[in-house]
Structure formats: structure tokens, C-alpha cells
Amino acid sequence: MSNTIPSMKCSDCGTVHPTGIAICPNCGSEKIAEHAGVPLGEVFTFSVNTFVPAGKFKTRAPYIIAVVKTDENMFMTAVVDSPDPMNIKIGDKVVFKEYEDELTPVFTLAAS
Ligand SMILES: [Zn+2]
Prior knowledge:
By secondary structure, this protein is an all-beta fold. The chain contains no helices and 8 strands. It has one domain: CATH 2.40.50.840. It has strands at residues 5-10, 16-18, 32-37, 40-49, 63-70, 75-81, 93-100, 104-109. 19% of the residues are buried. Zinc ion (ZN) is lined by residues 10, 12-13, 15, 24, 26-27, 29.
């Protein structure tokens, strides 16, 4: 098993959310605690950015920005690293890699 996803879990309704919340968006409970999220998920939707921006993404284009749905039904906007970004598909399995710069979630395609 690879990394877990630093996340938050509501002890009242059991939903898992990205970090940085104080109140459960699902039920309004304040009983939120840190949670080691399951690092597996799939591509819910995506866009392939072919524009070459300035800054740290300059050498990354083309790259995939995706909404990933984890196996715990947590939705995260993330970068998905792929050797072949133009062939990404909805439903592709992904594995959490890291929070790059402690800010951007990065996933990689799971071995098929
Ligand atoms: Zn809740």
C-alpha cells in the first residue's frame, strides 16, 4: 500500500473530506478529526492543459487536471501524472502520490 491521503473524517456521518475544514459539509457536525484517507480512486472528470504556463508547471505541459473520486467518495481537484496525458479517460484508476508543495494533490495512474 502506498501513501494515505491526509484528510478529515466526520464521526457523525462518516464522510471523508479534504483537509482544512472545521465543519462537515455533509451534515454540519463539528466532530471532524484527522483521517488517513484511502489512497485509491478514479478519474471523475478531467481536462488536459496543453498551455505552457510560467512557473513550476512550465516543464509539465501537457498535464492533466482532474477531479478524482477516491474509494471513500472524497472528491479532490488534483494533478494526475501520466506518461501519456492525451489518453486519460474517465474511470481510469489512480493512486495518491503526494501533496506537492503541501498544496496540490498529485495522483499517478494505477498500473492496469
Ligand atoms: Zn458529517
